[in-house]
Amino acid sequence: MLIEMMTGKLHRAVVTDANLNYKGSITIDEHLMELADILPGQKVQIVNNNNGARLETYVIKGEKNSGTICLNGAAARLAQPGDVIIIIAYALMTRDEAKNYTPKVVMLTDDNEVEDMA
Question: Which residues carry this modification: Pyruvic acid (Ser) (predicted)?
Answer without folding.
Answer: 25
